[in-house]
Structure formats: structure tokens, C-alpha cells
Amino acid sequence: DGSPPVGTSMALWSHPQSLAAILIASVFFGPSSAKPSEHSMTYRLGPREEQCFFQSLNSGQLLEVEFQVVSGGNLDIDYYLASPSNRVMDSVRRKQDNLFEGRVEETGDYKICISNAFSQVTGKEVFLLIMYGMDEEEEADTEKISKDEGDILNIKVGIQKTEQLLRQIRVIQDHLRVREARHRKTAKSNLHRVNVWSMINISYILVVGFLQVVAIRRFFNTPNTNKHGGF
Predict the structure, then answer these.
(1) What share of the chain in percent tops pLDDT 70?
(2) Long-range contacts: 174-178, Cβ < 8 Å, 24+?
(3) What is the per-residue pLDDT for 157?
(4) SS3 12
């Protein structure tokens, strides 16, 4: 599977497109606004699949991209983040999780790709979070207005900061929920492995015990070669 053609940067398309990926990316990663926002989703990556999403940003905006592999195989994927000029800003190979934070330097569509191409059999379930905020000029204008207009705007700024903190709390709760789901699936997988291994060992013990009994009985049931002999 290829990269979904979301956004306007035609130079970044490199693989065949799928309609499902287009719909998902258009819903979750639409054009950015001045107000800080975040998008989160859990995506199922099939074997040998690579999926890309696009986010439109302005120069100077804050960007945070994080992923965590929730389940599947060795809990690892490949990932990279590319600028509108196709410059790789961040990349990891076969990692369970990763976090990128920073200000973007270009205006345009940023490409976020997750890949399970190295896996031939196992699919992966990946939690993906994208957060983006106001650029430097907008933050400076907000601070200037809040000082000039007085207490009312100060209250407004306080409310906005509270909203941002509540949003961060919700993001942290999402992270904890994803981690809990990942650990629960790992525990279930380990329990299944322990049960299977225990059944194998019990079967082995029963077979060995049966063979020992048969061997002992044969040892004591040796035919008497002097059956017709006598004095």
C-alpha cells in the first residue's frame, strides 16, 4: 500500500494510493489553523505496508509527532517526517515509539510516514498523535494584545492557557490508555505462551512416564526359557 494523496504537495507522492487512506488522512489531518490543535488515531498496518499522512503547516508553527506500536510482532515499525521540500526532519528504524518536537521552517504540507515494510507476515497496530500550535508571530501578537487591552484580555489568555493544559492532560490520558492496552495485550500473549508451553511439558511428562511403565513391565515379564526343563 502506498501513501495517501492528502494535501497539495504532489512532489511527495511516491507510491500507489488507496481510497481508505485518503479518507482517513483527510478526516484526521486537514488544514491547520492558528488555534493549537491535535489529531490522534490508531491505525492498523498490514504486513509489508507503508502509510503516509500529510499536515499543512505555516512556517514557525510548533509541531509534535508521536507514535507508539500497540500490538503486533516485535512492536516495532519504521517512521520518518519530511518537510514540503522533501527534507527528512526525523526518522527511526524498527522502534516501538518515538517523539518529535520542534518548530517548522517551511510553509506547506509535511509528510508523516509509518512503515511495516520489513515484516512479511505480522501486522502492527500503531497509535499516532500529531499536535501543532500557533507560530511565533501569533504568540507575540497575543502577548502584545493582552498587555494593551487590560484585564479582560488577560482573563481570555488565562482561559486559553487553561484550555491548552486540559488538552495536554487529555493527550497524557490517551498515552496512558494506549500503554495500558499494549501491556494488557502483551500480558495476554505471555499467558497464552505459558499455557501452551505448560501443556507441552505436561504431555512430555505423561509420555515419558508411560514409556517407563511399559519398559519396567517388559523387564519383569521376560519369557522363561526353561519352561519344559526340569530335574
Answers:
(1) 69
(2) 174/40, 174/127, 174/129, 175/66, 175/68, 175/129, 178/42, 178/68, 178/70, 178/127
(3) 61
(4) helix
